[in-house]
Amino acid sequence: xxxxxxxxxxxxxxxxxxxxxxxxxxxxxxxxxxxxxxxxxxxxxxxxxxxxxxxxxxxxxxxxxxxxxxxxxxxxxxxxxxxxxxxxxxxxxxxxxxxxxxxxxxxxxxxxxxxxxxxxxxxxxxxxxxxxxxxxxxxxxxxxxxxxxxxxxxxxxxxxxxxxxxxxxxxxxxxxxxxxxxxxxxxxxxxxxxxxxxxxxxxxxxxxxxxxxxxxxxxxxxxxxxxxxxxxxxxxxxxxxxxxxxxxxxxxxxxxxxxxxxxxxxxxxxxxxxxxxxxxxxxxxxxxxxxxxxxxxxxxxxx
Length: 303
Known about the structure:
The chain has two domains: about 5-35 and about 260-300, no CATH class; about 40-245, TIM Barrel. Mean pLDDT is about 90; it is low at about 1-25. The protein has seven helices and 18 strands. By secondary structure, it is α/β, with parallel strands linked by helices. Helices cover about 25% and strands about 25% of the residues. A hairpin with a 2-residue loop joins strand 16 and strand 17. The protein is globular.
């Protein structure tokens, strides 16, 4: 009689995102991967919703990159001046309210609070008002389910992350750079890899990464920063280097989180791995062969 042991990569043991299963008579290897068998993913997250997004989206589309665009719904269609402590004031021209699906057609639309207030200076009820109003507005304008957010000014903490956990959001990004390609400890206080000004410095490290585990290169920024010619040249080079590849999953932060949560929902025992009927399909390699575990289906653990 065969026995089976289930091992999970330590870095993904909570998400079951890389499991090896072995039997005493015949070694069986099952490894969960991203869609299409990839182990690398790229998320590009951009804040505010200014007209400069249009040029950036064109660059993304040319390189088959998916962006997550975090919008302040209360400022759409307006022009606002933002004072800067380290340079000239920013005159921000926000995209029109009636053009969101045209501009962000192939990309994720996400929340960024209704009016970009600093959460550190708000009470709990004010924070929830900013978040829920933004979600509701964007849902009405786009008919899309809004599940992602970037914190305004990047300011958050564990208390705020818990506060917004009942709003329907599945993930929310800070601006605390990790300079790693690891998955987050918590999706509602998600620290990205780096600001886009550092992305070009890290791109070769990511392209050459070969550690046989799931990873993500999470870049954030503001499209208005590319009014600087050098910065635009750098992001263009970055996108050309990392885009149009078959070994990278180009994805919004919402779809990425959904997939990780789907992996977490798998039921893994010594006998089988089961995907609940109301879950999403997940991808895996069985002894090197790429397969899909459909909702409501199971695979033996150690045939």
